[in-house]
From TrEMBL:
Protein family according to the UniProt entry: Belongs to the class I-like SAM-binding methyltransferase superfamily. rRNA adenine N(6)-methyltransferase family.
Pfam families from the UniProt entry: RrnaAD (PF00398)
InterPro entries according to UniProt: KsgA/Erm, rRNA_Ade_methylase_Trfase_N, SAM-dependent_MTases_sf
Gene3D superfamilies per record: Vaccinia Virus protein VP39
GO molecular function, one term: RNA binding
Protein name: Ribosomal RNA adenine methylase transferase
Length: 233
């Protein structure tokens, strides 16, 4: 039970939704797809039918053991147990019903990976955070909107999962715009810990100078990324 909670094991039980996720991923026979969270494998065989190769990773060894038996006929499927967000393999398309507690880490990790696009399922509140504007923005909103074009595909009610989570979910399409590195991402997070200060005072913390008296909330996303780049120079 504890493991289930920690790993966000709420399994999708709607074949129809699984098919729509795979269809939205626009996979061709040239694509290598990374799926994080094999789970009970509702998406995995559908992905195998479309792509050149699937790498499907789950942190739960038992689920990978089961999938190895159930999907042994698919020659284009590579199943791995472990932390999917440490994957070093290259991929062109990302597909994941994300473990909810890992959603922020997943976006930060994906911002550093080179790929074309992805279909992700996240909690409704997290999806809103990603595209939040002005004072509702967080560091993750700046990172996500700099790294990706984000398009909402559909809402998914919690009763489409077993066991059902407490909240509803949203399917998003993320299309890669810009790669970011780890230092840039952590500097943007650091800037947000000083969000009530002026740019002038934030730069002072890093022994840099400017005359800009604006606060973080008054900057555009690009201006915040440029401020982080200036700090890192
Ligand atoms: C929300 S479930 C989705 C499972 C399946 N794709 C589905 O749609 O039913 C999330 C899955 O991610 C796995 N998981 C959690 N943390 C992980 C990690 N760091 N790396 C890989 N898989 C992880 C869980 O064990 C679980 O199977």
């Amino acid at each position: 039970m504890i493991k289930r909670k920690l790993l966000g094991q709420h399994f999708l039980n709607s074949k129809e939704i699984a098919e729509s996720i795979v269809s939205e991923a626009k996979i061709t026979k040239n694509d290598i797809v990374l799926e994080i969270g094999t789970g009970l494998g509702i998406l995995t065989p559908l992905l195998c039918k479309k792509a050149k190769k699937i790498i499907s990773v789950d942190a739960d060894q038992n689920l990978i053991k089961k999938a190895r038996i159930e999907f042994s006929d698919f020659e284009n499927l590579v199943l791995k147990s472990g932390d999917g967000f440490k994957t070093k393999d290259s991929f062109s398309i990302f597909v994941s019903n994300l473990p909810y507690s890992k959603s922020k880490d997943a976006i930060e990790w994906l911002a550093q990976c080179s790929f074309s696009h992805g279909i992700i399922m996240v909690q409704k509140e997290f999806a809103e955070k990603l595209v939040a504007k002005s004072k509702n923005r967080r560091a993750i909103s700046i990172i996500a909107t700099y790294a990706f074009d984000i398009e909402k595909i559909s809402n998914v009610r919690k009763n489409n999962f077993s066991p059902p989570p407490k909240v509803d979910s949203v399917i998003l399409k993320i299309t890669k715009k810009d790669n970011m590195d780890k230092k840039l991402i952590s500097t943007i997070n650091e800037i947000f810990s000083y969000r009530r200060k002026t740019v002038k005072n934030i730069l002072k913390q890093f022994n840099k100078e400017t005359v800009i008296e604006k606060r973080v909330d008054d900057l555009t996303g690009d201006e915040i990324v440029n401020l982080a780049k200036q700090i890192l120079k």
